[in-house]
Specification:
4 helices; 3-stranded parallel sheet; mainly alpha; globular
Length: 132
């Protein structure tokens, strides 16, 4: 088998701990690097989904730290040139149908379907862009 991509939708528990939230970006970069190395997949694409309850325009505190970290590693942000064309972040707030990640979005299946579809589309874009 060959691993060509990873999907990551996590961060809820980190928002309850300022230490974790403040190191989220550094840890996320390390995670990407470590998974690629561990699975001998240095070219594997990486798609990250933000926490659905966290809006760009009203994020505060630890949730803002995590959202900013997730957006910073997006290859289009320019902060990590090595991630250009191989890491994408999906902003999921518009896809969330209510609730928060700690309540599993009130069990709303549409939220999970929409986020999964958006992550899949982001992965396809990364894979297609590098196959040209």
């Amino acid at each position: 088998y060959e691993i060509v991509g990873f999907a990551w939708w996590q961060g809820d528990k980190d928002r309850y701990n300022t230490g974790h939230a403040s190191r989220y970006e550094q840890n996320l970069v390390r995670l990407i690097e470590t998974l690629r190395k561990e699975f001998d997949a240095p070219q594997a694409k990486f798609v990250i989904a933000t926490l659905g309850q966290t809006a760009n325009d009203s994020a505060e505190g630890n949730e803002k730290l995590i959202l900013d970290a997730q957006m910073a590693v997006d290859g289009q942000s320019g902060k990590y040139p090595e991630f250009k064309g191989n890491v994408a972040t999906v902003y999921t707030h518009p896809l969330s149908q209510g609730g928060a990640s700690n309540s599993h979005y009130n069990g709303n299946a549409q939220t999970y379907m929409d986020v999964g579809l958006a992550m899949g589309e982001a992965m396809v874009e990364l894979l297609e862009a590098n196959s040209e």
